[in-house]
Amino acid sequence: MNFKPGWLLLLTISAGVWSVPIERNGGNQEPKEEAPEENMDTGLYYDRYLREVIEVLETDPHFREKLQTANTEDIKNGRLSKELDLVSHHVRTRLDELKRQEVSRLRMLLKAKLDSTNTQSLQMDHASLLKQFEHLDPHNQNTFEAKDLELLISTATKDLENYDAERHEEFKRYEMLKEHERREYLKGLDQEKREKEEKRLQELKDKHRQHPKVNVPGSVAQLREVWEETDGLDPQEFNPKTFFKLHDTNEDGVLDEQELEALFTKELEKVYDPKNEEDDMMEMEEERLRMREHVMKNVDTNKDRLVSLEEFLKSTEKKEFNNPKEWETLDTNPVYTEEELQRFEAELRDKEEELKRRAETLRQEQELLKERGKALEAQRREYQQAVLEMSQRQKEQQAADGQPPAGPNGELQFQAQTQKPDDKDCVIIAKAPAEPEVQNNLPAEPPQNLPLHT
Ligand SMILES: [Ca+2]
Ligand SMILES: [Ca+2]
């Protein structure tokens, strides 16, 4: 699969956590490995559908040709989607099948969601629930139409744009939780220990802050370092065009987000070492994201989330390119305010309270079940007693009538009852000849109900 830049708009992903830093050993120019595009994950929950639709569309010669000439605007404004009407029948059939699969997957997701929230799914209206998914047209669930392609492109573009913002937000929460746990931990110590720990933690923080100068991403100093140390080339011969070609690892003519992020590994290694207690690798990935955003902001002038050779070369002519300033690392400015932390902690407390409440409800329900069990047991005993008494009365009646109870073959079944009827657990044992003794707490059947063996 060789995506054109327009498609890359959709498929070049901000997922820095999955990006693999490219390490080339100095001087050894090994043949370039094709970047495994199949492994690139957009992180979108409909990533697979998006990918498969594009793969199928690429097999159609007409659509492929249109794609070669389409620009980002054509893709964004839906002009390209109109071309869907002209693709071959075979391709349309495959797209229809993909859509049906996706709709069926979404239905399963909905069902799982409703089951987990205990919502009665008997009257679940799938058609209207499917409307919450914006990457396909829910009104028509069987065929893939131009509208589906348009929605898929616009939703994926929008979602990818929001993706970085969500990652920053997630990171902020991670940092607040870390600080919250640090404070709670210190609170639990006695004064002497706390002071010692505070000092130790401060020393770690200071140690983390001591690192070699970090170059501004995208500046000549930063690129030259990669050129020299990663590519093993002579710094005196630094050439932006060669640099661009070297780092366009999938050779599609543009630097995508992952290719850019790979360039920052050298800088990040100055600050973060997984072996050090004071260096947090989550912070390293946030730093990588910040660096990529910085470069994109300055270099990607047409805002398609890709750096073309032209854009790259233009950026090297700007005066910031030669800026020898240092990059302000993540620890220079706090990512949250004290007020935000307070709010976050209040949220945590609320959640904890809610969990406690739920545990208490469960405990009460358990108690109730126990009580009900007891009541049922008492009922069972009462019933047993009633059966016993009835059986006793029948025997007395039979004795009064002078008819000893008889077994199936006319043998005497019962000895005269000597136990007191008020002994609740007492059970009369019916002794059938040649049968093993039956001993259980089940109510004894009145003799006349015994099955007759013939
Ligand atoms: Ca590339
Ligand atoms: Ca661009």
TrEMBL record:
Location relative to the cell: Cytoplasm; Golgi apparatus, cis-Golgi network membrane; Secreted
Pfam families xref list: EF-hand_7, NUCB1_N
InterPro entries xrefs: EF-hand-dom_pair, EF_Hand_1_Ca_BS, EF_hand_dom, NUCB1_N, Nucleobindin
All copies of domain EF-hand, residue ranges: 235-270, 287-322
Record keywords, A-Z: Calcium, Coiled coil, Cytoplasm, DNA-binding, Golgi apparatus, Guanine-nucleotide releasing factor, Membrane, Metal-binding, Phosphoprotein, Repeat, Secreted, Signal
Residue ranges the record marks as coiled coil: 146-207
Lineage: Eukaryota, Metazoa, Chordata, Craniata, Vertebrata
Family note: Belongs to the nucleobindin family.
GO cellular component: endoplasmic reticulum-Golgi intermediate compartment; extracellular exosome; Golgi apparatus
Name of the protein in question: Nucleobindin-1
Biased composition (Pro residues): 444-454
Signal peptide region: 1-19
Recorded topology in the membrane: Peripheral membrane protein
Gene Ontology terms, MF aspect: calcium ion binding; DNA binding; guanyl-nucleotide exchange factor activity
Organism: Amphiprion ocellaris
Subunit structure: Interacts (via GBA motif) with guanine nucleotide-binding protein G(i) alpha subunits GNAI1, GNAI2 and GNAI3 with higher affinity for GNAI1 and GNAI3 than for GNAI2. Preferentially interacts with inactive rather than active GNAI3. Interaction with GNAI3 is inhibited when NUCB1 binds calcium, probably due to a conformational change which renders the GBA motif inaccessible.
Protein function: Major calcium-binding protein of the Golgi which may have a role in calcium homeostasis. Acts as a non-receptor guanine nucleotide exchange factor which binds to and activates alpha subunits of guanine nucleotide-binding proteins (G proteins).
Chain residue ranges for the region called Disordered: 388-454
PANTHER family: NUCLEOBINDIN, NUCLEOBINDIN-1
